[in-house]
Amino acid sequence: MVHPRIEDVTTRIIARSQTSRTAYLHRIRAAASTTPKRKGLGCANQAHGFAACGAGDKTALSSGDAPSLGIVSAYNDMLSAHQPYETYPGIIRDAARAAGGVAMMAGGVPAMCDGITQGEAGMDLSLFSRDVIALSTAIALSHQTFDAAVYLGVCDKIVPGLVIGALSFGHLPAVFIPAGPMTSGLPNDEKAKIRQLYAEGKASREELLAAEAAAYHGPGTCTFYGTANTNQMLMEIMGLHLPGAAFINPGTPLREALTRAATQRALALSALGNNYTPAGEMIDERSFVNAIAGLHATGGSTNHTLHLVAMAAAAGIILTWDDFSDLAEVVPLLTRIYPNGTADVNHFSAAGGTGFLIRALLEAGLLHGGARTVMGDLNAYTQEPVLIDDALAWRAATVVSADESVLRGCAHPFQPAGGLKLLSGNIGRAVMKTSAVRPERHVIEAPARVFHTQEDVQAAFRAGELNRDVVVVVRFQGPKANGMPELHKLMPPLGVLQDKGFAVALVTDGRLSGASGKVPAAIHVTPEAIDGGPIAQLRDGDIVRVDAVSGELIAQAELAGRDCVQADLSANHAGVGRELFAVMRKTVSRADAGASIFTQDDFS
């Protein structure tokens, strides 16, 4: 039986989205076809589409009804999580032929690494890359020759962008194929200690680089529970992966077997068979409620308060931050994965992984078990994949956690409410990741010190100007100002101040994402400063209260009568390609609307 709060939130999302969802479904149903789409093209169009194919594939595409599978890939060598995708197209083509179909690379999408661009100018393009990926996906599929598609992507903005693109082509079945996490290296808590020592001047750059290289040491996703691994959990709980596929390491026989099976499943879901499952019909309001519940239960990335809103809009579904907030009150925190604990995602997987997690939430009525997936309904995701005599099979996931310091059931959660909190007050609305912050730090009240760049914060820290109780305000970091970069370079110095015994918090219209750590941070403040939000009226010395208990973000000052401070942002608008993104800065929506260049009307 579904929990009343889950049911109530779902019902109101359905009611709120009725007009846009109905229009979306009408559009994708009009695009569907029970015959190969390519047969509606002119002969010259078709010939261009299979000109480079081998003889067998060419015959299947030109004269037969073999299903055609498009591959959209975010492969590149720069991202450890995406490097394994180099060999996937060949595996997918072989698996498609074995299933009587044809698979072709439809196109590639860009994939940037936030770990490389942290604190650098390229980070100003990071959030916008999500919408560029969605646009690139549309170009890849615009040839209208495919009957289904598989999507190869793992990391931060890449999966949300691929989902938006897949939902825009919602008449096609979609299966997402992960690459898996790298094996465990230097523990994440030890890496964090070296970072903080470096910020204090107690570790050299050589020592820091050695620690980072020992943590990020090979192919696969970074092992902490940031946005990339939150993406993988979400794809599973939304039913876009095969069950248990998210956290199998790269380069293993099981990983390849899952890739082959995902290919064959995508073909089986096309309109040319008897189990047509278009992505836009499959993913509905229940899917997104399940996603938010999974986000809370795992203490996942705050980036998804942006991404899930934007992803839902692509399916004609309207989510609000109030939906996140109301669900957080009833969904308990069931995991401790760094930065919410010391374990990494490999430890989480060994303790029971997504199969255990989904079963626990289903048994507590905190998920819609009847939500559609690429494998039927969500109950299939209480299983885990195994190889038996080299053949892929599934077995029931463990019902007992192998390590309750990492993963628990709903009867004994780490905390009764989810890992995110919505804050509001006279400074605006914001979100705070509470799962990694000690309860005694959930309420911080201190004088503000206001900055317009993270570099100025670093300079003030080095000069000893922040050695006191302080709420550090970093504004003009929102999507319209400079693309809403992540501000993780601030975490080590603020952590140093907190460890000295000071009451410290961060308030910003920028982002921190999944790696948000032990310092309380009210992020994604909206309206942003460049839009004249109240954060632009704060002054040094204003007493600011960041309260994750009551959900308040308040300045003890009369802000309404003050002028909004202006900032010269020209230095953030050119160089490293930023001048090419001016149109996005001008059209992007507010953070609580997904920080997207797309509107609800675009998908209706």
From TrEMBL:
Residues 406-595 form the Dihydroxy-acid/6-phosphogluconate dehydratase C-terminal domain. The keyword Iron-sulfur applies. It is an enzyme of class 4 (lyase). Keywords: 4Fe-4S, Carbohydrate metabolism, Gluconate utilization, Iron, Iron-sulfur, Lyase, Metal-binding. Its EC number is 4.2.1.12. It catalyses: 6-phospho-D-gluconate = 2-dehydro-3-deoxy-6-phospho-D-gluconate + H2O. Its cofactor is [4Fe-4S] cluster. Belongs to the IlvD/Edd family. This is Phosphogluconate dehydratase. The gene is edd_2.
